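Ticket #4471: complex job returned nothing on first submit. Input attached below:
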Amino acid sequence: MLVLDLTAESTAPPASRLQAGAAGAYLGLAVGDALGATVEFLLPREILEQYGVHRELIGGGWLKLRKGQVTDDTEMSLALGKAIVGARTVAAEPIAIAFSSWMKSKPVDIGNTVRRGIAHFRQTGETQVPESSYDAGNGACMRSLPIALCTLGAEVEAVATANRIQSHITHHNALGDAGTLTVIRMVQTALTGGTLRDLKELAEALVAQEPQYRYDRRRMENPGGYLAETLKAVFQSLFATDSFETALIDVVNRGGDADTTGAILGMIAGALYGHDAIPKRWLAALDQKAADDCRAQAGALLALSPQCRGR
Ligand code: MG
Ligand code: MG
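Support reply: We reran it on our side without changes. The output follows.
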């Protein structure tokens, strides 16, 4: 069983600013998911015809969601976070079990690669799928926030290990690992006082390592589920704006896999701009059970981190 040891005895309480940043990241993820889901799989031109600029949590979309309802992006994050909090470490088996019981709950949406990975675990007991060039989708990245929170303050290699443990249950691909690790490090950098410029440096380092993530050319519209496309849209929106609200509206109105671009941008921008930068009308409309779970998990995951245990 793959396990990252995070156990320690210190129980120093997390600083309140970190707490607020972590809650901002988790609620940002959920708000981005709920906002984007309405326009998932639409083209920018179709969004414009149907909604003008899409800027409210109204539900609907191809999944016929309730107002403020979240999808697999938030639900899988919560399943991952619950497994980590329960085990007090990042261990593959409890996470795989949590994903499996989430799938059993008949979720409103589930990606093909995720379904296949969970089926592989159920059939073989293996917590890692074989490496595959088809696994560079965004399904492991969209749920990666709990890793960012529980490994805050750890060495980069330990963060990367934790990321691989959760990712490889369904997605085993080096390009995907690199993109997801960058998102995790962006969240961590923002939580510990980093600026937009610092986040851009992380994006540039990713591009230098994996040129498929190059985002400075044509505007990415209708981004698909391939992580390189998803992150191009996220980076373009993040770096062209200066607030949580403008960044999130910019990315979801590009259409395509909009709940997932919204979720990933939302977790980064929520960490960067903080809880209070999330528009009140979005927090009021967000599914309240999901919001409560996000708030509770943000604190519990942060409390596990080396940063908050003073190591
Ligand atoms: Mg989704
Ligand atoms: Mg999606």
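The beta strands are 3-4, 90-91. Closing as resolved unless it happens again.
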